[in-house]
Each structure stands twice: as C-alpha cells, then as structure tokens.
Amino acid sequence: MTAIRLSVYRYQPDSEPSASNAPKSDSESDPRRPKPYMQTFEVQAQPGMMLREALLAIKEQDETFAFRHSCGEGVCGSDGVNANGTNCLACITPIADLKQPIQVRPLPGRPVIRDLVVDMTQFYEQYRAVDPYLIRKDPLPEQEIRQSPADRDKLDGLYECILCGCCSTACPSFWWNPDKFHGPAALLQSWRFLADSRDQATDERLDALEGPYKLFRCHSIMNCVEVCPKGLNPTQAIGRIKELMLEQSV
Amino acid sequence: MSRRASGLKAWIIQRVSAVYLALFGLYLALVFAVAPPQDHLELAAWATSPWVAVGLLVFIPVLLAHAWVGIRDVLIDYVKPIGLRVALLSLMALLFLASGLWALQALILIQVD
C-alpha cells in the first residue's frame, strides 16, 4: 500500500494551539487566538479512493480535524473543498487525479469557522434573494400545474444544482461583492424559475435583478462552469437572463 | 427614478460598442499596417474623406462609452470606500470628457485645414 500525502488547512479559533507545528501568534494580535496553518498528513491509499476518504482517514489520525460531509456520492453538496486550487466535492474527486502533496483548503472567500468548515450564510442569503420557488398569480389548479415535455426540457441543466457552493466561491465577482452580487449558484436558480413555463413572476424577477450588482457583476469569467461538480453552466444561464431582460425592455 | 446605477443599459452599451470598436479598430489597424499616411497632408486627406470622417466621429464617443462602462465596473469591483470611489469615478469622467472634446477638436481642425 502506498501512502498519500496531504497538506491540510487547519484553523481552530476556539481552542489553544495544541499541535506542535502550529505557529506562534505574533505579539501584535490577540495571543490567545491561533493562526491558520497547513498541516501535513500521510494516509494509506485504497483502490478507487476519493478525497473524502482521505479526509476521513485524517480524522482518524487527528479527531480535532473538522470538515463537512454527508452522503458521500455527490448528491448532498456538503463537502465542497478547494483541492490543489480548484473547488470540488471531496466525495467524487478521485485521489488519483490530484497531484501530491494534495493541498486541501476551505472554499475560498468565505469566513472559516474551523479547518475546512466555512460560513455559507451569505451564499444562502443570495439564494433566498432570488425567490427560488414557483410564483403563481392564477388560482392554483385542483391538482398539478401541467407542463409540456418541451417546456420541462428547458429546466434540464438548471434543476440539478445541489447548492454545494463550489461555483459561487470560485467566482471573483462573488469574492469582491458577496453581499450584493447574487453569484452563479443563485443566478442559475433565478434562471431556473424564469425558464419555468409554470412561473408567472417574470417581470418581478427581472425588475429585482436590475442595477449594477445583483446580476451585472458577472463578467463571464466562467470559473463557475469550470468547477461545477454537476457539470452545469451558470454563465450560460446568466446570459439567458440578460437576453430575456433585453427582450423585455426594447 | 431608480437609486441604482444602470445594469442592463451599461451592459448593452458595452456589448454594442464592442462590436463597433472591433470592426473599426480592425479597419484602423489595417490602414496603418498596410498603407499608413506618409505625412500630415496624406493623413488629413484620409481623415477628411467622408466615410472615414464619419467613422472617426462615431468612434470617439463609442470608445469613451465602452471605456466608461469598463472603468466603472473596475471601480465598483475593487474600490469599496464610497468617497474614494466617487472621487475616482468623477476623475475618470472628467478625463474621458476632456479626451473626447480634445479628439473632437482635432477632428474638426483637420477638416478645416
């Protein structure tokens, strides 16, 4: 069995620096507050091993190590991390694809709570801000709202998003303005409801997106497309929103 | 009146101006690469021919509008303190206005010559 080398981001603001290789805080800042540092681990390789399994092996060596994970198969979107500079879901990223030592860091741009666990509050607030649900003005029918297969097809590539946050935290525009720019994940969902034949709030949704921030901070950098673990294309969805806006305004 | 600076308008100005800039910029590059005017008289003759004159007249405001949207985006992205941002935006606006008027003056003078 060969060993896998990982260099993992450690930050434990609520505890004394216990590990021997934790750097001493400088005297200017709060001396009780440990600084983040990279810690090296070696774990045993397993056939077909994913990054999540390596992180779990680290946790067996050092139980103070924290990261989020749940389903282990790319469905729940909990274990978004930055591995060797690229955001990914640890559970579906094969170790074999990563150059060693694997640098594992928390999703960029978000406040770190502990080790690889980040505060995604702003990300969820931006998701909430696009009203990610069907809005009907007509009285609701007795049973379901019917939709033709062709109209249903328009939602393919949109509804699959699992809100892991890999895209928005890879987006420079979201790094600069996470409080004002919706970010690729929320905008993909915005288009998902604009594109839905059953939704009746197109005007309100488009009006809410006007202004230089919410939608138009997107400069088509396309980091979102590159990192999406589900292979979705937020940049294209954002382009569609802009086209629809233009259509409705001239 | 919206409190917000424009989003869609700025974006479409940037897109449309980019098309003109690409086409006319390519024409300018070709002229100066293949058959550049040899002296001031030739340059004046080239710049005063009707199509080129109109093209240049359009080129200046379109270039400045494109640059304005671009620089506004950069300042909105990177300059957070509102006082500094407004100061820089004003400075750029004045700079662009001055450049535009200066270029216009040059175009008019070359027509008169």
Automatic annotation (TrEMBL), chain A:
Example of a GO biological process term: respiratory electron transport chain
GO-annotated molecular function: 2 iron, 2 sulfur cluster binding; 3 iron, 4 sulfur cluster binding; 4 iron, 4 sulfur cluster binding; electron transfer activity; metal ion binding; succinate dehydrogenase (quinone) activity
Residue ranges of every copy of the 4Fe-4S ferredoxin-type domain listed in the record: 151-181
Pathway terms, separated by semicolons: Carbohydrate metabolism; tricarboxylic acid cycle; fumarate from succinate (bacterial route): step 1/1
Region (Disordered): 1-37
Record key words, sorted: 2Fe-2S, 3Fe-4S, 4Fe-4S, Electron transport, Iron, Iron-sulfur, Metal-binding, Oxidoreductase, Transport, Tricarboxylic acid cycle
Matching Pfam families: Fer2_3, Fer4_17
InterPro entries according to UniProt: 2Fe-2S_ferredoxin-like_sf, 4Fe4S_Fe-S-bd, 4Fe4S_Fe_S_CS, Beta-grasp_dom_sf, Helical_ferredxn, SDH/FRD_Iron-Sulfur, Succ_DH/fum_Rdtase_Fe-S, Succ_DH/fum_Rdtase_N
EC number: 1.3.5.1
Polar residues bias locations: 15-24
Reported cofactor(s): [4Fe-4S] cluster; [2Fe-2S] cluster; [3Fe-4S] cluster
Catalytic reaction equation(s): a quinone + succinate = fumarate + a quinol
Family membership: Belongs to the succinate dehydrogenase/fumarate reductase iron-sulfur protein family.
PANTHER family: SUCCINATE DEHYDROGENASE [UBIQUINONE] IRON-SULFUR SUBUNIT, MITOCHONDRIAL (PTHR11921:SF29), SUCCINATE DEHYDROGENASE IRON-SULFUR PROTEIN (PTHR11921)
Name this protein carries in UniProt: Succinate dehydrogenase iron-sulfur subunit
Organism: Halochromatium glycolicum
UniProtKB/TrEMBL annotation, chain B:
Described function: Membrane-anchoring subunit of succinate dehydrogenase (SDH).
Entry GO terms, CC: plasma membrane
Cofactor section: heme
Name of the gene encoding the protein in the UniProt record: sdhD
Positions contributing to a ubiquinone binding: Y78
Subcellular location: Cell inner membrane
Ranges in a coiled coil: none
Residues reported in the UniProt entry to bind heme: H66
Bilayer topology term: Multi-pass membrane protein
UniProt protein name: Succinate dehydrogenase hydrophobic membrane anchor subunit
GO biological process terms held by the UniProt record: cytochrome complex assembly; tricarboxylic acid cycle
Transmembrane segments: 12-35, 51-71, 83-110
Keywords recorded for this protein, A-Z: Cell inner membrane, Cell membrane, Electron transport, Heme, Iron, Membrane, Metal-binding, Transmembrane, Transmembrane helix, Transport, Tricarboxylic acid cycle
Cofactor annotation remark: The heme is bound between the two transmembrane subunits.
Organism of this sequence: Halochromatium glycolicum
Gene Ontology molecular function terms on file: electron transfer activity; heme binding; metal ion binding
Pathway membership: Carbohydrate metabolism; tricarboxylic acid cycle
